[in-house]
Amino acid sequence: MDRILSGIKPTGQLTLGNYIGAIKNFSRVQYDGEPFLFIADLHALTLPIDPEVLRKNSRDVAAYYLAAGLDPKHSTIFLQSDVSTHSELAIILQNYLYMGELSRMTQFKDKSQKMKEEAIGLGLFAYPVLMAADIVLYDAKRIPVGEDQVQHVELARDLVKRFNNRYGEVLTMPRAEVAKVGKRIMSLSDPTKKMSKSEPKGDIYLSDSLEVMRKKIMSAVTDLGHEIKYDPENKPGISNLMTILSSLSGKSFEEIEKEFEGKGYGDFKRAVADAVVKEMEPFKAKYEEIVASGLVDKVLEEGAKKAYDASKVVLTRVQKAVGLYRK
Ligand code: ATP
Ligand code: MG
Asked: Same domain for 23 and 45?
């Protein structure tokens, strides 16, 4: 069974984008392989964050994983910072990724854009190094991510090639897997921008009440005209809502276009809101149940042990290959 690896940064309240592009996807593929799913709390330190907020968000991500149906008996769920091999391997791997390629990463450019150069943390720049370590530590072949993370997985692939050329077949080649629909959910207030938990505009948060979710969809920015048609270039607002509806209902864009032929934006938005509420109602109830049960701490503790044992094997292999291992 191939190993599957992915993570979410506990930088803020999770969004519908994280749900569709990541969490829902994880639960869909979990029994196709052996998943290692983590909460990327070390990555969350790459931009300023309040310690208590980070602690709360981290446990929240774990609770949302479980609420989405991830089975801790099958999927290893853990905190990145609980497993020291991630940091140990990153220190080694930083020597095999170069300044030029790191400075070309879109996420780095986006997130550092408004910062003064003297104030940009090294961790933000080196983010893809730690992410490459996260990936290769488990010999994972399959990396389910949203579209925005594909560039980082590609860089991890470059690193694997470079490393193996020098030391032999030490690291396993990973591959990004993006969902056909829902790989990039856009902001409801600016459908040309990605919905991101750290950019508060136009997000639907998983913590929003069902009424607030409905309201946000009803007031989503739409496009000129009145046709329900999938055309991201000319109708980004409607296309984004169609993507949300399609990924939650399983209906194709053609089916949705047919269903709403001759109907207005109001009817269509109501249908999108209904689909979101139908999906979120049981999910949010499950989340509350899990938070109340105290299951999260137990899952994280057991997950950390399993992740450590699995990753130690790879770390040792790398240490031996580069000459750091004495035996
Ligand atoms: P941040 O603003 O802190 O970067 P984020 O919302 O981009 O937060 P990440 O923790 O960076 O979330 O990403 C977690 C996972 O969710 C990744 O696989 C990412 O590709 C996916 N993802 C994030 N935003 C979206 C989106 N709008 N649509 C689909 N997938 C998304
Ligand atoms: Mg992100």
From this structure: yes
Same domain for 178 and 269, yes or no, is no
| Per-residue confidence (pLDDT) for residue 102, from 0 to 100 | 98
Give yes or no for residue 157 CB within 6 A of ligand 1: no
Helices (H), 192-264: 210-218, 236-249, 253-259
CB 145 near ligand 1, within 6 Å: yes
Beta 76-79 vs 34-39: how paired, if at all? parallel
Residue-number span of the structural domain to which 143 is assigned: 3-182+295-322
Sign of CA dihedral 241, 247, 253, 256: negative
Atom of ligand 1 nearest to the CA of 9: 10
**Overall domain count for the chain:** 2
Q: Say whether 251 is catalytic.
A: no
pLDDT at res. 327: 73
The model's pTM is 0.95
The answer to whether residue 203 sits within a structural domain is no
Q: In CATH, what number is assigned to the domain containing residue 75?
A: 3.40.50.620
Quickly state the pLDDT bin for 201 (edges 50, 70, 90).
Answer: confident
CA–centroid distance, residue 205 to ligand 1 (Å): 12
Q: Cβ(9) to ligand 1 under 6 A?
A: yes
